[in-house]
Amino acid sequence: MMGDSMVKINGVYLTESNAIGHLKSHPLRLTCDGDFSEIKEQETFEGTTSVPSHLRSGGDQGRRHARTLPCPSSSDLSRLQTKAVSKADLQEKDTEIEVDEVFWNTRIVPILHELETEENIETICAACTQLHHALEEGNMLGNKFKRRSILLKTLYKLVDVGSDLLSLKLAKIILALKVSRKNLLNVCKLIFKISRSEKNDSLIQNDSILESLLEVLRSEDLQTNTEAFLYCMGTIKFISGNPGFRNEIINKGAVDILMDLIKQISENTKKCGTCSPNLGHLLVQVTATLRNLVDSPLARSKLLSISAIPQLCTVMEQYVGDKDVCTNIVRIFSKLTSYRDCCAALANYSRCYALFLNLINKYQKKQDLVIRIVFILGNLTAKNNQAREQFSKEKGSIQTVLSLFHTFHQVDLHSQKQACEGAELPQAQRPPSEAEDVLIKLTRLLANMAIHPGVGQALAASRPAVGLLLTTLEYKSLDDCEELVINTTATINNLSYYRVKNSVIQDKKLYIAELLLKLLVSNNMDGVLEAVRVFGNLSQDRDICDFIVQNNVHKFMIALLDAKHQDICFSACGVLLNLTVDKDKRVILKEGGGIKKLVDCLRDFGPTDWQLACLVCKTLWNFSENITNASSCFGAEDTNTLLVLLSSFLDEELALDGSFDQDLKNYHKFHWETEFKPVAQQLLKRIQRHHTFLEPLPIPSF
């Protein structure tokens, strides 16, 4: 044979380079119960001090190849540890099941002989598969049948061959034979070593070793086998990082098994009153695996069905000092709370708000943890007023959020100053910085919290809160960080809704209006929309109305009616409505074709948005207060169009004949009856009273 010279070991030919580790392995001997050990008792991994560093941390599921680990040698599986024969061991031997001699001699012995003499790896692997099937057929799996030690002795001799495929097949049989103690640990180490390489994922999947590992976690004792569980979970965590494995892992009951492990760890911690380091290491691997699995809808559904969220909160409370555990669980929640049902389940755990505040205060400088907690709180408060109230009632909640805002605001200011002094990428080309990312999530949380009247009024009156928001608008542009500027403006909009005596927003209204001008003239429609919304609230004040006219903002609002964007038209119309409260400013609607654009909005959006239709009618009602002739007030063409539209829209059958589901129909009917209909009827009557009909009006179809 060309290339490396060959060496024959255990009947298998290997190149000298592959055989080096094998030649250095120690002689094997069997202990009384068929377990194996090494005469030299020194272990590579012994106790908690030797746990590999990345089994201690959650790690990144996508970077197995970059991990550093003192890999367990394959000779770990052939180490002998002498031990005394206990009474329990003797009793176990008494319960051993006799083997059918004929079956043993005709089905098992030939395969064992082939394993000892065969030289081809593929043939040996095939023989291992045959052996597993035969043992299963003969009810010889488990640890209760005689001659088990003969089987194990043969299998152990093959461990050092060096083939990952063969090692997996051997490990699967060894696990099925229910080895215990050090042997269980070493076989878990062997599988873990193989799983570290992503190229072995297909081997693991094809050989169904996953089922064997889950069975270890399901059936073996946690306290006795904590370190074996750690390596077992390390393997499962690795393969759970492969999206192709996730549904298979979940379908094999992994979520139930992992949550049961978490429950056991939690109960043990509660019982002992302390957090065991080894159990902490294991908990990191379990939660890291769940973190990978929750990307699947199957896992999310399962977690909800077994009420897993409160249990995860409980164990995080117990291990609040363990950053890795907390980070993993927070990452799980950040994924789960993107879904409404999971969000509701977490919100129902009343202690979660205090827990998250505790974590923020404890890990305020750990950006990766803090940003996810703030994101979760933003999700919880997005559509749940009770969640807003519960969070606000936690001691120091708003102060903690504002303190966090101030901290990362300072970090961001410092970073921006450094960027100005050095060569940076053009702003539009770079993603948000870490500090900006936290600020984005914080402003979103504040905007959500401000929807609650009690919280909103308190924030509107808070100089620190409003000061931070205004400072952000001062030094950040849309080009710097679009999402932060838009979120900040949305928060100011929510706060500007509250017209309370001590409102800092009201005190600073003119300054806010000036800051918003740069948003109005931007090309960013989201930024424009948020700015117009703020003007909609602030324009209830006469000073702001004067500011709008003096700075020609009203012309911009009229132009926006042409945007064909429903939300923008709604907000712009709100500003124009507020302007027409002042008789002196009604004339502005004549500028830029304002009347025609309002009528077009009514035609285009009326049947789908009766609130917008109501705003248009109110604006036209204010504008026409001193009407003497409809045509001279609105223009002949727009007058005729208004008569047709209002007549049609006030016909309930025509107006509400949309293809909506029942809930949406009820929604439309409510706003049509309570908002649009009253003002539209009055406007139609006014126009009819001041209009001379020259010819019949056509009835349009909708």
Can you give me a brief rundown of this structure?
The chain is mostly helical and 702 residues long. Helix content is 66%, strand content 1%. It has a two-stranded antiparallel ribbon with strand order 1-2.
Structure write-up:
The chain is mainly alpha-helical and 702 residues long. Among the domains are: 396-418 and 432-551, Leucine-rich Repeat Variant; 589-694. It contains 38 helices and 2 strands. It has a two-stranded antiparallel sheet. Strand 1 (6-9) and strand 2 (12-15) form a beta hairpin. Helix 34 (610-623) runs parallel beside helix 38. It is elongated and about 115 Å long.
Question: Between the first and last Cα atoms, what is the distance in angstroms?
Answer: 86 Å
The helix tally amounts to: 38
The count of β-strands is 2
The parts where pLDDT drops under 50 for at least 5 residues are 1-50, 65-72, 77-94
Organism: Propithecus coquereli
Protein name: Armadillo repeat containing 2
GO biological process, one term: sperm axoneme assembly
Region (Disordered): 43-76
Question: What brief labels describe this structure?
Answer:
702 residues, mainly alpha, Leucine-rich Repeat Variant, two-stranded antiparallel ribbon, disordered N terminus, ARM-like, Armadillo, ARMC2, Armadillo repeat containing 2
Fold blueprint:
Layout: E1 6-9, E2 12-15, H1 16-23, H2 53-56, H3 87-94, H4 101-117, H5 121-137, H6 148-157, H7 164-176, H8 181-195, H9 201-206, H10 209-219, H11 226-240, H12 243-251, H13 254-272, H14 277-293, H15 297-305, H16 308-318, H17 323-336, H18 340-347, H19 352-362, H20 367-380, H21 385-393, H22 397-421, H23 434-449, H24 453-460, H25 463-475, H26 478-496, H27 504-507, H28 509-520, H29 525-538, H30 542-550, H31 553-560, H32 566-579, H33 594-605, H34 610-623, H35 630-634, H36 636-649, H37 652-655, H38 662-689
Antiparallel strand pairs: 1-2
Helix pairs in contact: 4-5, 5-7, 7-8, 7-10, 8-11, 10-11, 11-14, 13-14, 13-16, 14-17, 16-17, 17-20, 19-20, 20-23, 22-23, 22-25, 23-26, 24-26, 25-26, 26-29, 28-29, 29-32, 31-32, 32-34, 33-34, 33-36, 34-38, 36-38
